[in-house]
Amino acid sequence: MTKGYLNLVLHAHLPFVRHVDRDDRLEERWLFEAMTECYIPLLQVFHQLVRDQVDFRITISLSPTLLSMLRDCLLQVRYREYLYRSLMLAEHEVERTQGDAKFHALAQAYQTRLQEIKEFYDHYNGDLVTAFAELHRVGCVELITSAATHAFLPYMQTEEAIRAQIATAVTTFESCFGFRPRGIWLPECAYTPRMLTHLQEFSIGYFFVDTHAFTSAHPRPAFGTFSPILVGNSGIAAFARDEESSQQVWSSDRGYPGDYDYREYYRDIGFDLDESYIRPFIHPDGIRIHTGFKYYRITGKDVVQKQPYDIDRAREKACEHAGNFMFNRQRQLAYMHRQMGRLPVVTAPYDAELFGHWWYEGPIFLDVLLRKLYFDQNEIATITPSEYLALYPDYPCADLAFSSWGRNGYGEVWLNGTNDWMYPALHECEQRLIRIVNRLPDVSPSVERALHQAARELMLAQSSDWAFIMDNRTSVDYAVARFKQHINRCLELLTMVEAGRIDMDFLQRLESIDNLFPNVDYRFYRSSTCNDMQAKAMRRSSSQERSVLLLSWEFPPVSVGGLSRHVYDLARSMASQGMDVHVLTLAGGNSPLEDTVDGVHVHRVHVRQPDGGSFIDFAFQMNLSMLDRALALADDGIVFDVIHAHDWLVADAAKSLKQRWQLPLVATIHATEHGRNHGIYTDTQAYIHHREWVLTYEAARVIVCSSYMQSEVKRLFALPADKMRILPNGIEVPAVAADRANRGRENGDGSDDTVVFVGRLVREKGVQHLLEAAPAILREFPHTRFVIVGQGPMLEELQEQCHRMNLEPHIDFAGYVDDAERNELLQNASAVVVPSLYEPFGIVALEAMAAGAPLVVSDVGGLADIVDHDRNGLKVYPGDPHSIAQQVCRLLGDPDLRQRLRMVARDDLVRFDWRSIAQSTLDVYREVVSHTERQVSEVK
């Protein structure tokens, strides 16, 4: 009785490695080796199974670049030459090993195998695409596609570029096989919600994701990975990789291919034999290469002296492993069948190149496995995704977040310090091609050819293979050169189109070099018509309620600095005044992805948290995820009037949405990289500084929190004065205010006095200078207790400073405290010290004032606007421990001074009320929206 199904999926892909200029490029051997060791052996296995009337099912994804190469006449000729040289080497090897009991039989086996491969290739006249099509027609193999050039789709900036990759994939597949694919292999199993609309457009019914995409889905699928899910309300199914079956094949520790009886990949006669013998069969420049003649088995881990390879013994081991794989799937599916109440499915996807190329015995394993499943049992059967989806009328529904099957499950392989330089050029080409296509509805034949070729070059540059190679540090020079070639060719063609002068010789040369995708259409890059945007503008103008999209990487419960609290208070204050407020932010803790908090609509995105030097990559991924979610909100019918971005981390998403939706952008700059570091000294700082400039440049209005910040931002980014607005940070006064009379006695001798610091433990907050001032304070007031509230990277350094200065009995590092604990500390403080070296605003100063705590602050940044020396607080020189000690001692020794300062401070809080700040922010929105609507009206 059938208890479940096995969904075997092979993904066949190679980058486009066709080089017209010379026939000895090593990279073309990637294709020839894969054809000889993988594609043809697998085709032989599947065709023989059909002839033997074995009923099996398997799904094979053929990437459009691979299909293009398999059908290319030049590469077919060169492959025949490759086979001819391999057969010649086989003949030499049979002769060389004559009389060698260890290797002669294996040399003969290699020769026989190569002859069979040549006969198979000749039978199809070099057209392996036809061989795949025959398997599909008999119903044993389901063929599907992948993205055009195997691009890492989540890292594309525009919807048009994603659509072009998918559209070109479908048209290429259809031209090869005569029908449209039912499914798609998303390159690197990298999913982002932005793809769904385009998959729907081209009738794609399913795709594959890694295991953790399901474990992080919302809601979590009830059947786990043993059933597909329907993603959102798209009707498109996602199948998740089964971790157990994956480990048994892929794992370097427990996977079958590492068995000691299997053939050793790295020992090849191309490296082992004397150059005088092997030279005719390696690269003409004398570069030693793999020839495919390998005579040793793996033998053992880190074993130098390898043992001879025994092909019969390896075949027996492949049969044993096939039986073990089947047994494990039987146990797995039988258990899940009892749990689910329906027939479960195990989805086992692999790179096709593993079977035969990396794992020489892989085709034997698959052959034996499929025969055993058919002849030796009846508990499980193989099935294709389309067949499984037809079994039941209902499947679980869930939303999936960004994920891939790459290292650590997200996108770090394709975006890190080795390859991040590629993306600005890619995004520039995307945007430029789209602008040209949108501007030119009708073009001449020569311009049409140029735009078609520009699309090919851009898609070739987008291949995920180049970034992967750079990360893997193999053939890096080749990957860099290929990427730059395609980018430069694309840009040169676009420049010709814009100038109205096409160099036909140059164009024809490119068409002969990069000749893939004969049905490519530059119109795939055309944006949607402006009618939709105009309709949305009419809806905005006719609606009395305005809507804003706030972009911020911090929002409760994610709280790193003061940004989280600022955005939270601003958002809920605007919502209370009738604004429709949406916040797009980072998911954290157990917070739901969709939430409503105090009238604010909160939309959270999952992004892998930053780790050390990967913070820039994290920000890039977060922006892409935010862009995905924002576009999904628009698809759901939510219309925004204005975008409000907070700090550089969301600059890319803000810019893209502004351009796509043609909406005004407001930016709040809470701090600058230059100010935090007192200059720009590293590449990372320069990058952040540039993103800050981009955000201020794109914004219609730039909000800062103090006159100090206005001066700094204006100077750093050369902003006109009329573009800037000063709106201070705010405070909810009733939430923290308290009656001082209920908080103990007012003493003037320092007994039981508490000095409090609240803030991030980073250098610019200046807490190290407060510790330097502590000995002088303690000499005058020896019972003073210092409480340091906060977390940060300087904690250990500060603790060591306390130990070195013998301050440990007097210093309490309180770490993180919640709002209630913080307020209680502030209310009971004899002095709150804010010794910052750089402070754009200083919200803790307002919190202290609201709590009735006397203030000592550095005369720097926004603190200088808040505190008026000797009127509502005391000021000290930044970074000066003597000045800090002097002013703290004044407070500790003078209760009347403390009382006077706190009373004036409370009166000053009126101008920092969130309601008035929210109202001023809404005024900025009305200003920019009104200006935008006037511009639209003038254009009409």
Describe this structure in words.
By secondary structure, this protein is an alpha/beta fold. Helix content is 48%, strand content 12%. The protein contains 35 helices and 24 strands. The strands form four sheets. The chain has an eight-stranded mixed β-sheet with strand order 13-14-12-11-15-16-17-18, sandwiched between helices. Strands 1, 2, 3, 4, 8 and 9 form a six-stranded parallel β-sheet that branches. Helix 23 (651-661) links the parallel strand 15 and strand 16. It is elongated and about 105 Å long.
Q: How many helices does DSSP assign?
A: 35
Largest β-sheet summary:
8 strands, mixed
Looking at the overall shape, the CATH architecture of the largest domain is Alpha-Beta Barrel
Oligomer: single chain
Helix content: 40-55%
The CATH homology group name of the largest domain: Glycoside hydrolase 38, N terminal domain
Q: What does the radius of gyration come to?
A: 33 Å
Total beta strands: 24
How many structural units, i.e. domains?
4
CATH topology of the largest domain: 7-stranded beta/alpha barrel
**Whole-Å distance between the termini?**
70 Å
Strand order of the largest sheet: 13-14-12-11-15-16-17-18
Parts with pLDDT < 50 across at least 5 consecutive residues: 529-544, 734-751
The CATH first-level class of the largest domain comes to: Alpha Beta
Shape, per Cα inertia axes:
elongated
DSSP strand content: 5-15%
The assigned structural class equals alpha/beta
Mean pLDDT: 90
